[in-house]
Amino acid sequence: MKTPTVLHDTFVIERTYPKAPEKVFAFFSDPTKKRRWLGGDDAGFEVLAFEPNFKVDHYERWTYRFQGGVLIRTDICYQDIVPQQRVVFVYTMTFGDKRVSSSQVTVELVADGSSTRLRHTEQGAFFDGAEPPSGREQGTGGLLELLGKLLEELL
């Protein structure tokens, strides 16, 4: 039997968007905007279920596939929400029937004139080599780039 392993990693990604914090925050708090950003065709996912629940101590669940691949489930529990300023959440990802990671994320939104500086800090535990932390960082960076495009398009 293979010995279970865990790899810990922390990464920080920063972006500046030419919109006010309330416009950026809406993509976390508004289920329609969140669905478009994190699960729409723009992100390349086929969403099978989306159960939004953007409240502290409540759970949100996504079930999806990426380009016809394995079934992925993401379970999120919000730890702290300060509108227009901060979102802290814990999430786990499961590929098929295998739990691959658990992370704590802090997203900070700081007004900078008419723009918003976003800082995403993720502290993750990655299980049994199922997913490298570099892949998570790259995927998160791509989603934050998509957020910028959607902010320009929709607002």
Give a written overview of the molecule.
This protein is of the alpha+beta class and about 160 residues long. It is built from 3 helices and 7 strands; from the N terminus they run βααββββββα. The mean pLDDT is about 95. A hairpin with a 3-residue loop joins strand 4 (about 70-80) and strand 5. The protein has a 7-stranded antiparallel sheet, covered by helices on one side.
How is the secondary structure organized here?
Blueprint: E1 6-17, H1 21-29, H2 31-39, E2 45-51, E3 59-66, E4 72-82, E5 86-95, E6 98-112, E7 115-127, H3 133-154
Antiparallel strand pairs: 1-7, 2-3, 3-4, 4-5, 5-6, 6-7
Task: List the main descriptive attributes of the protein structure presented here.
7 strands, alpha+beta, 3 helices, single chain, seven-stranded antiparallel β-sheet
**What's the Cα radius of gyration?**
15 Å
**How helix-rich are the residues, as a percent range?**
25-40%
* CA-based shape: globular
CA distance, first residue to last residue: 53 Å
Task: Please list the strands of the largest sheet in the order they lie side by side.
Answer: 1-7-6-5-4-3-2
Largest sheet: 7 strands, antiparallel
Low-confidence stretches: none
Helix and strand succession?
EHHEEEEEEH
Helix/strand/pairing class, anyone?
alpha+beta
